[in-house]
Every structure is written in C-alpha cells, then in structure tokens.
Amino acid sequence: MDTMRDRFAPVASRLLDEDPRLAVVLAAIGTDGFTGAARRHPGRVVDVGIREQLLVGAAAGLALTGLRPVVHTFASFLVERPFEQVKLDLGHQDVGAVLVSAAASFDWPAGGYTHMAPGDVALLDTLDGWTVHVPGHPDEAETLLRHAVAAGDDKVYVRLSLQSNGRAMPVDGERFRTVREGRSGVVVTVGPMLDAVLDATEGLDVTVLYATTVRPFDAPALRRATEAAGTDVVLVEPYLAGTSTAAASDALSDAPHRILGLGVGRRELRRYGQPEEHVAAHGLDARSLRERIGSFLGAAVRV
C-alpha cells in the first residue's frame, strides 16, 4: 500500500491542473514529486530552499494576492520552526493556507529529535481559527486534502503519517464517525490509532468514535455518544498526550465526567530505534492500550 505522503504530490499536482488559484510552496523537501507540475505551472510551484520561515512567509504573500497556497515539509519544520510566521504572517494578517506535514510524531526516528513533532497540534491550538485534519489512511488523506484546498481561504493543517490503518473509512472533513457502540465508556481514537484501539477494545462494552478532523472538535458527536455510554471518556491521539482533553471537557461541561488522554509522552526517547518501538514505548500499542483503557474504565464490562 502506498503512504499518505506518496499520495500528496500526485493529488496536489492534479489540483494545480484543476484550480488556477492554487499554488504549492516547498522548502527543498518533496520537490521531486512536483517536477512535472512545475513545468506546467512555473509560477505556481515555488521552492524557497531550506528556509522554513520564508516558506510560510512566502505562502502568506501568495495568499495576500488571492492565491490558495499549499505548503509542505516535515511537521517540525512546518509548525514548530516557523511558528512566528504561522502566528503573524497567516494569523495576524488573516489569510489562509493549507499546511501539509510529513514525519508526524516519530515517523523517521533516525532523523533524531529535530525531525519529530508530537506537539504540533497542541501548538496550533494556541492560535485561533485552524482546522486540523489527521487522516488514518492514504485514501482519507486524499479526501481531506481536497476538502482543505476547497475550504475557501481558511487556515487548514493536514497531518500526514507513515502510520496507517488497514482500510479507509468514509470521512467528510467535519464529523466523528461511530465505529462501535457500547454502554460502559467512550473511546475517541484519532487517525492512524484506529486499528490499535479496535484491537485493544475488542470484547469490551465501549463506544468507539473515529476522528480524522480534530479541530473544530466534534462536541455534538461526543455528547451523543455519552448519552448511551456514560461520561467516562478516553482520548487516544497519535501526538502529544492530552492535546484534546480540554476540548472534550468543554463538550461535557454540563455533566460530571472523567477524561483520560493517551498519546505521545513528553519525555524524549533518545534511543531512536524504529517507529514501532516508539509506539510501544509511549504505550500506544494494542496491548498497552487495552491495559490502560480497561483500568480507567473499570475493565469496561465485556460485551
């Protein structure tokens, strides 16, 4: 199966052909995938070199002229390094762009901590007005990228990962999807964590909601799920643990509730190893998730 990032350049290239308003802005990374598109649209495929602050600044400039920029590099270089430009050039100037990341939390451990960005979504949460898509499969990534490009002049972040579920789910760029119903708690699983969560909760009497658009947070879906399953909620996110706990708590502010946020821990793992080892070290493999979810939900009465 191809990866989410494998889909990005072909889909973005087709969108360049279809939409004269679209521009792609790169910072050396990923340029090979746009060779043909750059020949067809030389003014709308821009490579600024290894200059990530300029990457976002140039995108904001293009947006000010009326174009819809799609901006791509590793998450750590797209959100963290040029955060001031994301905050001011896009946010303060009130212009939109589609930021499309790669490498996610720890997709390339050999690159070291400089190429890891488990805090990217939490960092964007400090700003107003961002839509955040976290696909769990290449097909979902393609759908959500098209949603993002078509979203007027909004500010959108599409978080791509090498981690992927075995099959795609229908996604609409807005709502959580119910994939399992139960009566003893709700588990909200984000993007590529779905397969592990379904394995972890097999035989447990819990509702599982699947989220690929996490901002805006689908509060109505969570409230509906808790009406039948109770207000014990577990969030399983492929980035910094607890990133969405405040959003979930706000959704349930009129009812007593408990929330457990699972995700990537804050401690830096300096033996970089392989992505699967990071998943296990952060307790995000199916076995660890079952122990942690079951303990929090009181073993979640079996179906």
UniProtKB/TrEMBL annotation:
Biological process, per Gene Ontology: isopentenyl diphosphate biosynthetic process, methylerythritol 4-phosphate pathway; terpenoid biosynthetic process; thiamine biosynthetic process
CDD domains, per database record: TPP_PYR_DXS_TK_like
Cofactor (UniProt): Mg(2+)
SMART domains: Transket_pyr
GO cellular component: cytosol
Keywords: Isoprene biosynthesis, Magnesium, Metal-binding, Thiamine biosynthesis, Thiamine pyrophosphate, Transferase
EC number: 2.2.1.7
Domain Transketolase-like pyrimidine-binding: 2-168
Main enzyme class: transferase
Molecular function as annotated in GO: 1-deoxy-D-xylulose-5-phosphate synthase activity; magnesium ion binding
Subunit structure: Homodimer.
Family indicated by similarity: Belongs to the transketolase family. DXPS subfamily.
The protein, known as: 1-deoxy-D-xylulose-5-phosphate synthase
Origin species: Streptomyces variegatus
